[in-house]
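Key idea: predict the complex, not the pieces.
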Amino acid sequence: EPEVTQTPSHQVTQMGQEVILRCVPISNHLYFYWYRQILGQKVEFLVSFYNNEISEKSEIFDDQFSVERPDGSNFTLKIRSTKLEDSAMYFCASRVQGPLSYEQYFGPGTRLTVT
Amino acid sequence: RKEVEQDPGPFNVPEGATVAFNCTYSNSASQSFFWYRQDCRKEPKLLMSVYSSGNEDGRFTAQLNRASQYISLLIRDSKLSDSATYLCVVTGGFKTIFGAGTRLFVKA
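Result:
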């Protein structure tokens, strides 16, 4: 069964450094998403991406964040100048084109630790 | 009012019990509704989509009431393996909102 994959599974970085989190969505999916989940808190929407551009972003997704689909398979989240409060689990998700299905499938996540 | 609100839980039930989860949402323009389950430190996994007509998948039944902006999930004959956090998820446009989740503990 096809699945969303994410790398790395765990990233440790120092405050102020840049990190790139990588995702490979399911191959026939056209909508891509990033979410974060701070330990013990709920899953929070960051951004959605379709047709090589951002469709919607939350107030969390400020200038510190950017997304890119550099090739036909990868979808990346870049966090510039990381802060301690960026420590969280970051999930990528994808779905097929609607309206037949809006179901999103999640990757296993990248645990980001900022020290 | 929170965009998506769930019972705070946790629910502690014996094996074989029936347990009901409730969820309300604030945006009447919301388009799609789902229940996900999340195990500790794992990704959310889709349990089922929720339709106004109601839908059932084995021991799981989901229902949507658009007029009341209310979503429910019923688990019958609960198993130990049902222990997890159940997440109510609502989408509108390209944005997805998760509820905080309701933790379920099923005990032998």
